[in-house]
Structures are given as C-alpha cells and as structure tokens.
Write a structure and sequence with these properties.
- The chain is of the alpha/beta class.
- The protein has one domain (6-72, 92-211, 224-296): Alpha-Beta Barrel (TIM Barrel), CATH 3.20.20.
- 37% of the residues lie in helices and 21% in strands.
- An eight-stranded parallel barrel has the order 3-4-7-8-9-10-13-14, surrounded by seven helices.
C-alpha cells in the first residue's frame, strides 16, 4: 500500500465516485456525514485518504506518525487467523511527520482527517503535533502501540498524562484524544479517564490492538476477539467521563450491529481489520446499516 501515489488514490476515488451514507454527526466542532471512519494502521503516511473518502467513510485516521523516518521492525509479521483476527508486528514504519504534512497540504479530500501520533520517547509526540497541526483536524495520542520495543510504550496513566500535556502545548489548539490499550481492569480505565480530565484532553479512543506474541516476539492482535473488551471499555468510559469528553470506539467491528452497539455509548466508530479481510463491500454494508438505523431514530 505504501507504493500507491496520492494522486493515483485521488484519481481513482474521483472516477469511482463517493456513495452517500447520511447519518450526520457533530464531533469536536466538525460536521461528519456519518460516524464511521478508517482506523489508524493502514494509511500510515497519508497516501490513501482519497481512497477512504471514496469508500464512504465519515472521516479517516492517518498514522501512526513519527517525527522522523523510521523503517519499523526488522522482521515484520502480518498474519491472518481463522477467526477473522489479524496479528501484526510492523514496528511503527513511518515516512515522518514532515512528509505526511506535505502530502496532506498537497491534496486532501473534503472530510475530517485525524493524525495518530506515536513515539519512541515522550518528546516525539509534541514534535509530530507541531509538524502536522495545520493539516490535522484532531489528534490521537497513541501511548500503547504493542509493536514498539517493550520499554518504549507509555501505558502508565501518569506517563500518559505527561505526554498529553506536552503534546497539547504543540497542537495549535486542535483536539487531543488519548488512544489507550485494551483492558478489562475497571481501576485502570478509571485512571485513564482521570488522566484525560487532568491533562485537559478532549476524550479517549478505545482501544489499541491486544498484545500477543508470535514466534517469541511481541505483536498486536486486532479483529473480532477484541470486540467484547472494547464494548466493556466504551461503556465504562462513557460513565466515567463528563459529557464534554468524547469516546471513540475501535476494535472488532465487522457488522452494522456491532457498530450500532458501540455507538450507543461512543460518538464515533473506527474499523480496519474488516476492510483487510472483506474489502470495501463489507465496509459499505456497515456504513449503510448504520445510516439506515440512525435515520429511523
């Protein structure tokens, strides 16, 4: 996917046209056609934003983005499992924040674009925010990517609070969401909610991929096995956070029913693994199902 030039993506999108899935939502000051978007992890370097738009998504998330070019893991893993799950170890490959910003300056589709920020050290986060805040509509601060070196994740809520604060200073006033790891620990979820409130962030993205191991190395698991945990987290976070803090759900959504269950508590839903398994057709089924159901409400 990284070899696809942005102009090719745009041309194909314009030729294909954009289906309309009307389920308008207001999110962080932006008007979205619908509440379903592409999660971070596929369009790491903002090469496929027009493709996302042409599928009919209400928004897209690019990244994870690092402040500098990074090759990622020396040995990469991308493996499908029989239950529709996906195991990946890519190690945060990134062309760097300046390249991503340049690509979005050059051409961007007419829907909101979020930038997912990652880092190998805390100072990486504000660097990415500073380089991309003029092209991002909001940021996802990814503290828990399981594909980095184990000592390079920042899942401790105190560390997360610090990263949110220093990133907020460089984000040009754009909204900041904390992307947290999957957990069923209610106390840990509560600590993340406190970190968001105390750091002045705008909400939470729940969740990242589930940590697993492949051939003795750490990797991330996505897809349907993640869904029950994500639903638990989203329900709990909505109870804990005040109404002005948003909750975004991502993990295991492969049907309209699952998307709608999460949207009972979350403002937006993101998908990715279902696209890799089943293609744009299944994603459009989700978008159509969501838009019809919300129109009946």
């Amino acid at each position: 996917m990284h070899s696809t030039p942005q102009w090719v993506s745009k041309l194909q999108a314009l030729l294909d046209g954009r289906p309309t899935y009307e389920a308008p939502v207001r999110f962080l000051g932006y008007n979205l056609d619908n509440p379903v978007g592409l999660a971070a992890g596929l369009d790491k370097d903002a090469r496929l934003t027009w493709t996302s738009w042409s599928i009919g998504f209400g928004f897209t998330v690019v990244g994870s983005v690092l402040p500098y070019p990074h090759r990622g893991a020396s040995v990469k893993v991308l493996e499908r499992l029989p239950d529709g799950a996906l195991v990946n170890r890519l190690g945060l490959p990134s062309e760097g924040a300046r390249r991503v910003a340049w690509r979005l300056e050059l051409s961007r589709p007419p829907f909101p674009i979020a930038v997912n920020i990652a880092g190998l050290e805390p100072s990486d986060y504000p660097r990415v925010a500073r380089a991309t805040c003029h092209v991002a509509d909001w940021f996802e601060v990814n503290i828990s990517c399981p594909n980095t070196r184990e000592h390079s994740t920042f899942e401790d809520p105190r560390q997360a609070r610090r990263i949110l604060r220093i990133t907020r200073e460089s984000a040009c006033g754009k909204p900041l969401l904390l992307k947290i790891p999957p957990t069923r620990d209610p106390d840990l979820i509560a600590e993340y909610a406190v970190a968001v409130r105390e750091a002045g962030a705008d909400g939470v993205v729940a969740s990242n991929t589930l940590k697993t191991r492949v051939n003795g190395v750490q990797a991330g698991l996505s897809g349907p096995p993640l869904y029950p945990t994500v639903r638990f987290m989203v329900e709990r976070l909505r109870e804990l956070l005040p109404g002005d803090k948003v909750v975004v759900a991502v993990g295991g959504v492969d049907s309209p029913g699952k998307a709608l269950e999460l949207l009972e508590h979350a403002s937006l839903v993101e998908v990715l693994t279902v696209l890799l398994y089943h293609g744009p057709g299944r994603v459009r089924e989700i978008l159509e199902g969501v838009s019809k159901a919300m129109a009946r409400r």
